Structures are given as C-alpha cells and as structure tokens.
C-alpha cells in the first residue's frame, strides 16, 4: 500500500496569506524598495534604434543550451562561489542588455516560484499542493565591471529582494497602492 504524507496547505491558504499581507504595515515598509526599482527605468531601444520600446511591444527569445554548456553552468563554480543558477543567468542577460543599450543598468521583470514564506512566522506547506504560485517583480540590475564583480552585484541585488518578490504583486494587485511596472 502507498502511504502519502499529510495533506499540505491548499491554494486558498496561500491566497489568504497574500490578502493578509496587503493590509500589513510590513508591506508598507517595502514601498520605498519597489519605488526605487521602478524609478527612471532604463528604456530598451526599438528595432529602428530611435524610440524607446514599451512593455506592450516586448518580444521573447528562447535559447536552449546543450548538455556541455549546461554542465559548465551548473558545475562546481556555482557551489564554490555560493551562487545560484539565476545569479549567473541574470548576470548574462543583464550584461547583454546593458551592452546593447549602452546603459550601466537594466530593469527586468523576474518570475519567482511564489512558494516562499511570507515572513510572518507561519511557513506554508505546499510540497503536495498542485498549482501555480508564481510571483512577478521588477529587478534593477547593474552588472558592470569584470565578470566576477558583475556576478557579485547581481547576486546582492537578487538577495536584497524583500520576500522573494511576493510583496510587489501584493502591492500592485491587492493593496491600495496599485504599483505599475
């Protein structure tokens, strides 16, 4: 017989925790951080090189890495430098965008898995809960200098995101503030 672990928290509990966060004073304390991320967002040029692009005109590009390139990215260097794969990938994307635009910084919309704790002392048990718990948030990167410097700067930017980004979505969609990216 198959014995499954205890049932986890349903999606409704996660949604209720977001609603509770929307009225929390802790969320108001995040507002300066998110406003700083959005302030004077660097523009990405359009194909003609003359006008700034808008999010409405955004396009996606998909790139796949082969087995050898993936092994290099996931190898012992990550562990030795205490890096996560997102640190490396966001550094590469940030450097490419900064090189293209001529700017020292760029603003990206980052997607997190949304299953992180809400920092209220009550961890969610979502390991057996099926559903999409994603959170989207803006992340300003300044990946300048030598590659090692750029990696450290991006790593610090990522680690500095409050609540792994979940507060931005709450501020944008559930609170009185209505932030816009």
Structural class: mainly alpha
Helix content: 40-55%
Estimated radius of gyration: 19 Å
Order of helices and strands: HHHHHEEHH
Quaternary organization: single chain
Number of helices: 7
Number of DSSP strands?
2
How many angstroms separate the termini?
50 Å
Uncertain runs are none
The chain-level mean pLDDT equals: 84
Q: Give a short account of the largest sheet.
A: 2 strands, antiparallel
What best-fitting shape do the alpha-carbon axes yield?
Answer: globular
Strand order of the largest sheet: 1-2
| Fraction in beta strands | 5-15%
Protein name: Condensation domain-containing protein
Pfam families: Condensation
InterPro entries: Condensation_dom
Domain Condensation: 11-177
Molecular structure report:
With 181 residues, the protein is mainly alpha-helical. Helix content is 43%, strand content 8%. The protein contains 7 helices and 2 strands; from the N terminus they run H-H-H-H-H-E-E-H-H. The chain has helices spanning 11-22, 25-38, 67-74, 76-80, 85-101, 147-159, 166-173, and strands spanning 106-112, 135-141. The protein has a two-stranded antiparallel ribbon. Helix 1 (11-22) crosses helix 7 (166-173) and helix 2 (25-38) crosses helix 7 (166-173). The longest helix is centred in the middle third of the chain and has 17 residues, at 85-101. The radius of gyration is 19 Å and the shape is globular. The model has no long low-confidence stretch (mean pLDDT 84). Residues 11-177 form the Condensation domain. Pfam families: Condensation. This is Condensation domain-containing protein.
């Amino acid at each position: 017989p198959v014995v499954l672990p205890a049932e986890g928290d349903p999606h409704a509990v996660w949604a209720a925790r977001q609603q509770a966060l929307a009225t929390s004073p802790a969320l108001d304390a995040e507002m300066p951080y998110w406003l700083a991320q959005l302030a004077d967002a660097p523009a990405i040029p359009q194909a003609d090189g003359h006008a700034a692009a808008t999010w409405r005109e955004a396009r996606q590009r998909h790139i796949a890495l082969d087995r050898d390139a993936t092994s290099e990215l996931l190898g012992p260097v990550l562990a030795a430098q205490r890096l996560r794969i997102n640190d490396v990938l966001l550094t590469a994307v940030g450097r490419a965008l900064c090189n293209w635009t001529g700017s020292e910084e760029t603003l990206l919309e980052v997607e997190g898995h949304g299953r992180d704790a809400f920092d209220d002392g009550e961890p969610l048990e979502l390991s057996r809960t099926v559903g999409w718990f994603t959170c989207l948030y803006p992340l300003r990167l300044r990946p300048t200098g030598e590659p090692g410097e750029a990696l450290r700067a991006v790593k610090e930017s990522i680690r500095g995101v409050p609540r792994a980004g979940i507060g931005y979505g709450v501020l944008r969609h559930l609170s009185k503030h209505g932030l816009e990216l």
